[in-house]
From TrEMBL:
It comes from the Eukaryota. The gene is Lrit2. Residues 325-417 form the Fibronectin type-III domain. Residues 494-512 have a biased composition (Basic and acidic residues). Signal peptide: none annotated. This is LRIT2 protein.
């Protein structure tokens, strides 16, 4: 008792009949642990730390009658090990961590009169475990009185039983069991599902297991942009299924999903989309699965502007212009992967700020059509991310359905040195396409406004030529211009040129080498 033993002693006398080692430090029963004590009849190893029991740990114990392993840490037992103990009558395994009882578990315990499996982690077992028990089989074959068969005490209480369809056969067995099998505690209780927690086995009626059947009240939804949308699917299944949603933007936008039972065999799953955008449109698939199979239902979601039945494309206004509906837009933040826009509506446009919607047009500068994004009331920022390298983009902000006006667009060009941009998050000064206005944006990215202030336009013809007279600054500017010209969407709108024309290039001076092309990272 309470000895510091870490293994079974090897010098036990051969004629010993009872061994009791408790509150010690045993962690396993290896093969042939008692091969030198074949006369052993009683083995008590309670309250140790035994976690592993070898399949041949009970070898050479044909006379063993009683095995007690209470209060250890066994999560499984090699039940075929009991082929070496045919005379075993008492098996005590309570207060362990057993969570599985295979169908053949009791097949090799024909003379058992006491089996204690209480206070373990058993949740689901089959009635075939007991149908295969020789003690039960003998009682079913007896035609006369049962007095000739010894009673067998069975303890199964204090386990977290999950009372769903998988436990149906076992519950029926417990309700019908009688001598020679006697339950130590016949009031077995359910630990789940929630609506059956605390109920006794004799109070529940369990149905057969069924494959999931999914459904939705409406599989085609059209909703206005900016509203919180809840998609709902219902699943009928037994046992309770696992439910999940799949949709195109799952990696980019993770929506909240809640699943709860509404009846014994029906669960409701809801997916919440806050402030729905047109980009959220598409198919949302609700899938349910249990051990019998899986099934799914798809809900098609269409998000439209709150003032129209269809989503517009391009730049054309959808309705008459509202006088004074002007928005001031600026770059509020720059990251390695994009920019964040911030805008402020003029007083006339913001007369009712709580009801003002905004339209964002985002896309490549040379694209005929831009992606349209609708922003609900109370929001005045938007991040443009996941941009392609060496590409010229344009983003415009307008009130409601108006076409963007002067000063409401931002043009920016992403750099080509992607690896360096990701490795070093350093900022560089960027020459804006219009005149000499400078912004600081992420490494490898140019940014500019598509419209210039009148004062800047007035200074442009005189300022730009002076910067091109061979000075180091002029050469740097020429290098930047060369970089812009080499872009796929290399529009040169708004660039300052000596003749004020579009697309004109400054002639090279004879005998003067053209500055070598440099990538955007070299401009730092």
């Amino acid at each position: 008792m309470s000895a510091l033993l870490r293994q079974i002693p090897i010098n036990i006398p051969q004629d010993i009949r009872k061994i009791r080692i408790e509150n010690s430090h045993l962690t396993e029963l290896p093969r042939g642990s008692f091969e030198n004590v074949s006369a052993l009849e009683y083995l008590w190893l309670n309250f140790n730390n035994i976690t592993v029991m070898h399949i041949k740990s009970l070898e050479y114990l044909p006379a063993l009658k009683e095995l007690r392993l209470q209060g250890n840490k066994l999560s499984s037992v090699p039940w075929t090990a009991f082929q070496d103990t045919p005379t075993l009558k008492i098996l005590d395994l309570k207060h362990n961590r057993l969570d599985v009882l295979p169908e053949h578990a009791l097949r090799y315990l024909p003379n058992l009169t006491y089996l204690d499996l209480s206070s373990n982690q058993l949740t689901i077992i089959s009635r075939d475990v007991f149908y295969n028990w020789p003690v039960y089989q003998r009682s079913q074959r007896m035609e006369g009185p049962l007095e000739a068969i010894s009673n067998a005490v069975l303890a199964l209480h204090d386990n977290p039983w999950i009372c769903d369809c998988r436990l149906r056969g076992f519950v029926q067995f417990i309700k019908s069991v009688g001598p020679p099998i006697i339950l130590m505690n016949s009031y077995l209780t359910c630990s789940g599902p929630k609506f059956r927690t605390g109920k006794f086995f004799h109070e529940v009626e369990l149905n057969s297991c069924t494959k999931p059947l999914t459904s939705a009240l409406d599989t085609n939804l059209t909703v206005p942009a900016g509203l919180n949308i809840t998609l709902t699917c219902f699943v009928q299944a037994s046992p309770s299924p696992a439910v999940w949603w799949t949709y195109a933007l799952k990696l980019l936008r993770a929506f909240n999903v809640s699943t709860e039972p509404i009846s014994e065999d029906t669960v409701r799953s809801e997916l919440l989309i806050p402030a729905a955008r047109p980009a959220d449109a598409g198919n949302y698939t609700c899938t349910a699965a249990n051990f019998l199979g899986n099934t799914s239902v798809a809900i098609n979601l269409r998000v439209v502007a709150p003032w129209a039945s269809t989503t517009p494309r391009g730049w054309a206004p959808m309705g008459p212009a509202e006088p004074g509906a002007h928005v001031e837009v600026r770059i509020a933040k720059q990251t390695v992967y994009g920019i964040t826009l911030e805008w402020f509506a003029a007083a006339a446009a913001a007369a009712e700020p709580g009801e003002t919607w905004y339209t964002l047009l985002v896309g490549r500068y040379d694209a005929a059509q831009k992606d349209t994004i609708y922003i609900g009331p109370g929001v005045n920022t938007y991040s443009v991310t996941d941009l392609l390298p060496a590409t010229k983009y344009e983003v415009c902000v307008a009130v409601r359905n108006q076409a963007p006006r002067k000063g409401q667009c931002v043009v920016f060009v992403t750099g080509s040195d992607v690896s360096q941009m990701e490795q070093r998050e350093k900022l560089i000064h960027i020459v804006v396409i219009v005149c000499a206005m400078v912004l600081a944006v992420p490494a490898g990215m140019y940014a500019c406004t598509a419209e210039a202030l009148p004062g800047c336009l007035a200074r442009c013809p005189s300022a730009c030529p002076r910067r091109r007279r061979g000075s180091p600054q002029a050469q740097a500017a020429g290098s930047k211009e060369s970089t812009l010209d080499s872009l796929p969407a290399g529009s040169e709108d708004g660039l300052c040129r000596p003749d004020g024309g579009r697309g004109a290039r400054r002639p090279e001076e004879p005998g003067k080498a053209r500055p070598p092309h440099r990538n955007s990272a070299d401009l730092y």
